[in-house]
Amino acid sequence: MHAVFALYGRYEWVEIFLNELKAQKLTARIHRKNPETGKDEEMKIWWRCQVRVLPGGFYEMVFPKEHIDTVLTGLGFHQKGHTDFDIEKDFSLGLFKIKPIDYLRKFLRIDPVPEFNHEKELIFEKMFVSIIPIGVRYEQGEITLKGGEFDGWDIEAL
């Protein structure tokens, strides 16, 4: 799962916030069919979240899908009005009305923010940083882990 957002704030505070996001570890579910017994096995492992930079200066946080409620609430995706500018606003260009966020989401292959339960929250140090939610990106399918102690286990694509 990918949460895509823009950040606004002083450079030093933004860097502290990004380091805070990179330090997060969440549990991810992995599973496999045991080659000896043929039974399905399931296990949870600690997965380190990632922060990536997208074109245009946007950021995306990659995390396990089962933590969508807590991560999106922690990032403030349920709040409106992070800045004075409404990101969902239509612009009129003479006879045409356009919505720039739609073109941005199409360019970056992002979906709008889904409805989610915002009762649980991960706590991030967000001092003096505004988070402007852009959307989310879903990955489909599964990935088979190779090498290491989890060789042959499957994990849902993040």
Describe this structure in words.
The mean pLDDT is 85. The chain has helices at 11-22, 68-74, 100-108, and strands spanning 2-9, 25-33, 40-48, 50-53, 59-62, 91-93, 96-98, 129-137, 142-144, 154-156. The strands form 3 sheets. A 4-stranded antiparallel sheet has the order 4-5-1-8. It is of the alpha+beta class. The relative contact order is 0.27. It has one domain. The protein contains 3 helices and 10 strands.
The helical percent reads 10-25%
Overall geometry: globular
Low-confidence segments, given as residue ranges, are: none
Biggest sheet details: 4 strands, antiparallel
- How many whole angstroms does the radius of gyration measure? 18 Å
Measure the end-to-end span: 5 Å
H/E series: EHEEEEHEEHEEE
List key phrases describing it.
4-stranded antiparallel β-sheet; globular; 158 residues; alpha+beta
Any chance you could write out the topology, listing elements then pairs?
Elements: E1 2-9, H1 11-22, E2 25-33, E3 40-48, E4 50-53, E5 59-62, H2 68-74, E6 91-93, E7 96-98, H3 100-108, E8 129-137, E9 142-144, E10 154-156
Antiparallel strand pairs: 1-5, 1-8, 2-3, 2-10, 4-5, 6-7, 9-10
Provide a compact summary of the structure.
With 158 residues, this protein is an alpha+beta fold.
